[in-house]
Amino acid sequence: MEDSSSPYTGLPARQFWRKGVSEQHPLLVSDLYKKKFEINQDSAIATAGSCFAQHIAKNLRLGGYKVLDVEQCPDSVPDEIAKSYGYRLYSGRYGNIYTVRQLLQLVKQALRIEPPRHLVWQRDGKFFDALRPSVEPNGLDSVEEVIEHRIEHLRLVRKLLTQANLMIFTMGLTESWVHKESGIVLPTAPGTIAGSYSAKEYEFVNFTYPEILEDFVQVKSALESLNPAYKFLVTVSPVPLTATYCDQHVLSSTMYSKSVLRAVSGQLCNEFNNVDYFPSYELIASHFSKGFFYDSNLRTVSEAGVANVMRVFSEQHPPLRSADAEVDRAPDVDASSKLSGTRGGKKNLGANELVCEEALLEAFTK
Amino acid sequence: MTKKICFMGDSHVAALKLAYEQLRTSMDVPELVFFAARLRGYRHVRLDGASIVPVHPKVLADFELTSGGQKRIELSDYDGYVLCGLDSFIGKTLPISGNYCTDLRGPEKKTLVSKSFFEAMLGHAFDQELCVNLLKMLRSVDAVKPIWLIPTPLRSQKILEQDVFPRLQKFAESEQLAMQAASHYQSALRQTAARYSAKCVLQPSPTIVHSIFTRPEFHQSNDKNTSDYAHMNAEYGKIMVRELIKEI
Questions:
Q1: pLDDT for the residue A346
Q2: Which of A2, A29, A343, B176 gives the lowest tally of CB atoms within 10 Å of its CB?
Q3: Which of B11, B41, B126 comes nearest A359 by C-beta?
Q4: Which value does ipTM take for this structure?
Q5: Residue B116 Cα, gap to closest chain A Cα (Å)
């Protein structure tokens, strides 16, 4: 016997374009994302990916989540300086990881599934790690130094991958460059930050859906071999390509690249219980938002866009603490928890102020 | 004509003020007008045109007490400015000296960073501190007048008699580590001062022992139970004021 009603009858509002999109405002839309698993205080998060992943990592930290960082620098270093050296961006100083092949390469080398391969670029007499050329803006003094830093970096990434139980990865690009002799996949084209391009040495590659899917499955297997309970949250960066090497318009290349990445992440999410997909790409890049969340270059994502993405994320993964709970790093003339040069701490509250007051009174009331 | 210098700082100004009062009777010194505020009181000042004004009653009271009744600093009244203390103490660079290295061949396990980043860490170690806030404030009003930065004194060596500062212990046990730490600290101070076209008047070597401590005889307190190892006496102040006067 046939049902008289349509299979769509009774489905939630979010599954209908009119109620889910046409009648929604991008800043207010809800129900866009349904989490597959909890992220909580026991989640040890490793973040990596293209530049949009930086926003997610930063906001998770602010929300009190345990975002690992195995390559830290002192709090006193201003953000601008720290970030220009690759600190405080991700859970390690690997710089932007645009392709899944790049991630796989890092994971394999860090976990010693394959030996470390080094490729050193030069610029103005300085030496750069071609696998993360942006993390040392002034380069290093020798090839040996680059290799020493890379080996230490891989040691720390191994520590990260071992400690983490959730990887948040933002897929950025399908297009990439490969060093022919070594097979090393590069984060930037040779000659952009350092090195120089030669068609004999380097070749262009545009990774396909099957290749990217297979690469991610390999990453997943490698990490699950460390911890079978590993979870993965994947996103697709809404940031378009700066340039394409394919003989076509950059807009077409962008749509192709993002569509492939979106399809791969969808497949991963459908196929594996421990892989979730968060739709930041849809929220920012789809015509639902009318380009509102991009800056005037229609490429970089505005603060409002990031905030909206995090709003939707927080509906399912609410902050573990409020942003207001951030520790005020600067002690006050009243809350004298730190005295210049004397021991701070609660037990000395008041005593510190007294010491300072006495010093001034003695000098200025004689 | 005698120069008139505005002397701003925290409670470490006290030793220099005591010394200044003693020295001015016997030598030709510039006129120093003090505006000290206890603890991190300089967090509660703001620019009002070309004046620095306190926005906290305790800071206002400290300004009045230390300047002879003035409620604000009229920057145009002075030929130059001295900044004293204001969180420019070695504790800001010791974690860098103690935890980071530029090669892994040393005996200690430290975090490897490039030479370039190591210098950047030192050069910006005080960026979030009161001394830099004030340097920025002053330079936003006047790009030319001289500014001298007198760092917070090194802690008294007496601190080692108390088992309360374990982080200092490894520096106390190694002359080489202590010398390195002192060199890093001085580099940080010089870089900071230079960025704001200011000059750093470093703590003179006769007051220093083991590279990173002030000689105990300059410690302000003779109280064995004190927890204050930071404040120095007028004898220390005299040496420091003489150094400053040479620069002015």
A1: 40
A2: A2
A3: B11
A4: 0.85
A5: 7
